[in-house]
Amino acid sequence: MIRSGEEPVVYVVSDSVGETAEVVVRAAASQYNSGSVKIERIPYVDDSDAIDEVMERAKRTSSCIIVYTIIVPQLRQYLDERARELGIITVDIMGPTMQALSSVFDQAPKLEPGLVHKLDEDYFRKIEAIEFAVKYDDGRDSRGLLRADVVLIGVSRVSKTPVSMYLAHRRFKVANVPLIPEVPLPEELFRLDPSRLVGLTVRADKLHEIRTERLKAMGLSAGSNYAELERIREELSYAQRIFRELGCPVLDVSNSAVEETASRVMDILKRGEHDGNRR
What we know:
Layout: E1 9-14, H1 19-29, E2 38-42, H2 48-59, E3 64-69, H3 73-86, E4 89-92, H4 94-101, H5 115-119, H6 121-135, E5 150-154, H7 160-168, E6 174-178, E7 197-201, H8 204-217, H9 229-246, E8 250-252, H10 258-278
Helix pairs in contact: 2-3, 6-7, 7-10, 8-9
């Protein structure tokens, strides 16, 4: 039990970088008062000497536990034994999960530390895609359009950004461009294959409702031109002309959740790949 005003210490010990265990600790700590906890991450622990060093640090700390993600069973056992001798509580994140998985897999685990980061190229592609979506959101830099897997176009508040981010988490590089009658379109749009363009549209009444609520949330007058129904109809009509000119597929998002819209965009991309291969 920690003393009043004392911050508990959690030693996060891992044979890799330790981020998995740290995320778990922070999630659990958030359930206790302010969630204030000092985390000391100790990565790349791969032998008993390194564990001994951890124990030396831990035994000098009055209120601590050790949370660890270590793959090699012998090291897990050694850490637990040393901690038990010192009366330190330990939590094994990986061991029980691997043991449970062993009942459904018909092969032995590889027991290779850090394998998830060595092999998970998808992880790095996802990070790259998210950074791409942020950089090329809302038409900020048209140079990214030609590098995108897909470009979403539509008037303001048709969910271009949320759909872009959802697709980015699925490792698609997505850019999006707002369609505003008074603003010239980037010339890169007309150089893209239509199969890499998707137009998003919505019913005028639905968009009127969305924009009105947006203005209220920003503390602005609902009577702004931005939310006027006549202006909205003008923008949507302009968008339809652009969609026809570009020859791109169009999705009506009036009754669609972000996840559903993203799924439909992915279907369009798959069909485009299929047609391209067939040609």
